[in-house]
Here is the input.
Amino acid sequence: MDGLLYLDHAASTPMRPAAVEAMTPFLTDCFANPSGSHRFARTARRAVDEAREQVAAVLGVLPGEVIFTGCGTESDNQAVTGSVAQRGGLAVTSAVEHHAVLDPVLASGGVAVGVDATGHVDLEELAQVVRSSDAVSVVSVMTVNNEVGTVTDMAAVAEVVRREAPGAWLHTDAVQAACWIDLREVTPLVDMLSLSAHKFGGPKGVGVLVARSGASPAPIIRGGGQERERRSGTSNVAGIVATAVALAETDAERGAEAARVGALRARLVQSISSSVDAHETVPGSACVPGVVHLCFEGIENEALLFLLDTEGVCASAASACASGAMEPSHVLAAMGVPRGIAGGALRLSLGHTSTEEEVDAAARAVVSSVARLRGAG
Ligand code: PLP
Here is the structure.
């Protein structure tokens, strides 16, 4: 990544060297299919079993409650679509979910509940929606929002769901949470939880779905019956081994990293907003340390991203390009951010390789690019 200022960790964070090291022998030497019966297969199977135990320990669940999938999107889809397929009834979610949850909920005829100006789900509306439905199959509310970084009070969500719809399964998309939140505090509150390895230093192509005992979403991939009939397909042994190592390392470093990255976040916001006019969409107190979401009024984020890219800054702005026109993100729209402001949205996200030098250089690039686009530079 020489010459690049990488501030897009929420999109994907670099693999941890220990994870690369752990996976390599399973790509080169021990490549056997773990479903086989010979000793070579048994070695691969043992590695998957150990990885499952390691992941379960970090999440505070039983190994049998951990299902390895092909990505976070698949885990989310199984939690929603698999729950509706298994038991019928309504799927309910929040309006700011990742499309991996929102789309299957809406495709099943489900409901998306509104949020407040900081992106927190409206608990009154959630209570009303689940109370007025005959049967709620699943409620899915994300632990951390991928676009603006808002942290959900999962205990408050669980309290509403258990009170108003005691039969519903509660799922949380914790894909953006693993780096910042101790998930042992979340798993006792929910029936299902989704993770994606490439967001915490593991490889792309591995997801985790935790299905606590009592929750049995139907498989959405059927075939060879792997993962105890819950997710078919030959196990990605190398990826699963690396996922467990990355998650364990992330867990061990979380406290120190949250403090270090939180300080970088504050420095980044301060250096940008002391030089140019910027709206911080969600304050640091309501959001994870790794996400800074800013809106620059009067600027098109496409133009800003283009200028930043020429300066080597990797950032993102979650907008969907629909029929040639840039549409503001569904997250900002649900939060009530006016279109004129949302059009100038920029997400800078930090992670385990972020440094002070990188943050300072990125801040300078943002300030000069914004000034240039506003005609002052
Ligand atoms: N959920 C959230 C909150 C995400 O941020 C992402 C990825 O950006 C996903 C789900 C999808 O994960 P994956 O990239 O592994 O499919």
Notes: The longest strand covers residues 90-94.
